[in-house]
Design a protein that fits this description.
Layout (H helix, E strand, L loop, with lengths): L4 E11 L6 H9 L18 H6 L2 H17 L8 E4 L5 H13 L6 H6 L4 H10 L5 E4 L5 H16 L3 E7 L16 E8 L8 E9 L10 H8 L6 H10 L5 E6 L2 E8 L3
Parallel strand pairs: 2-3, 2-4
Antiparallel strand pairs: 1-5, 1-6, 4-5, 6-8, 7-8
Helix pairs in contact: 3-6, 8-9
């Protein structure tokens, strides 16, 4: 990709233990509140009750963060193309399926099979919101947040329309857990728009580069810990910059040998 993508953030969502929304994260960074206990699972109230009961934690994470971001943006979720980024999808369900297929294939749960696909969160979201716009599911292992941000930013600029990005991961179980670098659930979401306004939280300049520079990390110790404990934790350095104000370009990995140079700034 040549040149820069210029766009703005209009909505922000986040969920992690002790940081259940954007206001809580900002309060933590301002020193007004410490990261305390949060509900064991995201509320995901956007989902109808029956769907919420069936939804695994990964889906609830994605839907909760996405709903927060869209609510802040003031836009209609039904009108937004979306990008859902996850390093591994639902590793607990994958472990269950592998174990069940090895032990008693006939006992495999259709509901869990339904939730095992990588785009399960996108499916729950579009059904719950009545959205018929395009939705992509992105996977790039430990660089999935950056890959998702690149996809969403590119869509917003080239399509000249707002795009929702949701990035999420959760701990796994069984043998697969040893291969998956997520020990804490985390999700973040951004509504990206191609034309900044004075009311937007921040403008962004995004450039893809081929670089082996060490990626940026959050300055806050709590966010550093969380970033190391989740495969999509790269999103936290951007959230911190949006909350505190930028101190320079951010380097966010977006694939093997690829890095996004992201420069947050005040809206136009």
């Amino acid at each position: 990709m040549s040149g820069e993508l210029r766009l703005a953030v209009r909505g922000i969502g986040v969920w992690a233990p002790g940081l259940p929304d954007w206001a809580a994260l900002r309060a933590h960074l301002d020193g007004a509140a410490s990261a305390g206990e949060a509900p064991g699972r995201p509320a995901a109230d956007l989902l109808p009750p029956a769907e919420r009961r069936r939804a695994p934690d990964t889906v609830r994470l994605a839907v909760e963060a996405a709903a927060q971001a869209v609510a802040m943006s003031g836009l209609d979720a039904a009108d937004l193309p979306s990008v859902f980024a996850s390093s591994h999808g639902d590793a607990k369900i994958m472990d269950y399926m592998c174990a069940t297929l090895a032990r008693a294939p006939a006992e495999l749960s259709p509901t869990r099979f339904h939730n095992s696909v990588h785009n399960a969160a996108a499916g729950y979201w579009t059904i719950a919101t009545g959205c018929r716009r395009a939705s992509n599911a992105v996977c790039a292992a430990g660089t999935s947040f950056g890959a998702g941000l690149l996809e969403a930013a590119t869509q917003a600029v080239t399509g000249n329309e707002p795009v929702l990005l949701a990035a999420f991961d959760a701990p796994g179980s069984g043998p697969l857990d040893e291969m998956i670098p997520s020990r804490t659930p985390f999700a973040c979401a951004l509504v990206l728009v191609p034309s900044p306004t004075a009311d937007d939280p921040a403008a962004l300049q995004v450039r893809l580069e081929v670089d082996a520079i060490t990626p940026s990390a959050p300055r806050d110790a709590r966010l550093q810990e969380l970033a190391r404990a989740n495969a999509c934790g790269d999103g936290l350095v951007l959230l911190e910059a949006l909350a505190r104000g930028p101190t320079g370009p951010l380097l966010i990995p977006a694939g093997e040998g690829l890095v996004l140079r992201v420069e947050p700034g005040p809206p136009a």
